[in-house]
Amino acid sequence: MDALKLTDELIKVYRLPAKLTNGYAFGGGVPITFTNVDWFNGFEGMTREDIEGHVRRKRYYTPDARFLVLSDSFTFQM
Questions:
Q1: β-bridge pairing 35-43 and 67-70
Q2: Residue 67 domain boundaries
Q3: What secondary structure does DSSP assign to 42-56, as a single string?
Q4: What is the Cα gyration radius of the chain?
Q5: Strand, helix or coil for residue 54
Q6: Residue 23: inside a domain, yes or no?
Q7: How many domains does the chain have?
C-alpha cells in the first residue's frame, strides 16, 4: 500500500451554533460564534468523503451537531 502524501493545505473544522439567526441582517450583520474544533493537513487526492469520514471518527463529532469545513479546495457543511 502506498503511503499518503500530506499537502500544505490546512483543513479547518468549525462547529456551527445550534441555532442560527433568523430574518434579515440589515445594518452590518448579526455576529455568530463558530467554534474551531479541529484543523489538519490534507493529503494528495483527498476527497470530501475522506474529510467527512475523518471528522466523523473524531471525539468531538456528534451526529446532532453541524460542522463547517473550510480549506482552499473545500467548503461544505456536514
A1: unpaired
A2: 6-18+33-77
A3: EETT--HHHHHHHHH
A4: 15
A5: helix
A6: no
A7: 1
| 3-state class (DSSP) for residue 50 | helix
Q: Is residue 27 part of a domain?
A: no
Q: What does the buried/exposed string (b/e) look like for 14-53 if buried means 16 or more CB atoms within 10 Å of the residue's CB? A: bbbeeeeeeeeeeeeeeeeeeeebbebebeeebeeeebee
Model pLDDT, residue 20:
78
Minimum mean pLDDT among 1-5, 20-24, 53-57, 70-74: which range? 1-5
For residue 35, the surrounding DSSP H or E stretch is strand 35-43
pTM of the model: 0.83
What's the rounded Cα separation, in Å, for the pair 16 and 76?
A: 12
* Band of residue 12 on the pLDDT scale cut at 50, 70, 90: very high
Whole-angstrom CA distances from 11 to 3, 24, 66, 67 are 20, 30, 16, 12
